[in-house]
Predict the structure of Aminopyrimidine aminohydrolase.
Amino acid sequence: MSEGSTFSAHAWGRNLPTYEAIRTMPFNEALADGTLSLERFRHYMLQDAHYLIAFGRALAIAAAKADDPDGLVQFAEGAKVAVVVERSLHADFFESFGVDAAEFERTPMSPVCHHYSSFLIATAYSEPYPVVLASLLPCFWIYAEVGRDILGRAVRPNPYDAWIDTYAGEEFHEAVRAVIATTDRAATGASPAVLARMHAAYKRATELEWMFWDSAWRLADWPV
């Protein structure tokens, strides 16, 4: 299968308009030029900490469903890293931006964070391994691309330098390339029906990525 015919190439091309909307949305424009308000970034970080716990659980389920030992190790390690990152948010970002553990504990998931987390967990439990991977891939891949894009145009020094450097860094990009490769391998043996569900899962997760950042920009909370 040539590079242009891989699942990831097709999925990226089909959802390119949504990625462009994410790349240029107000939250990321303000993050790049250093004008993003502390209130909006704190909202984002609190919700991201909630999300990473759910993301870690979904990765652990993907590990359990893996069709070879390499996938088992890859996603079990990914689940561990997601939880470790969440804890480092408490220790580093939260401290830097004036958030303590008590505030995190009393801050509920926003509607979008709840929706995205529930979507990943439900997909992880109910769908076959290739579809689970497709639902997880946008979080990896879009963050990597947005991180690199913001790095290329960011005002430096920037209040959010640590965030930018994390997602633009080579270590994160190496992990993303590995997930893309595993997803493409899983797709090669998938039936047309499963491939269609993979694309649907990838599309929905990409839409939820946009909604997550937009929710932070709007400081969205439960309306009732």
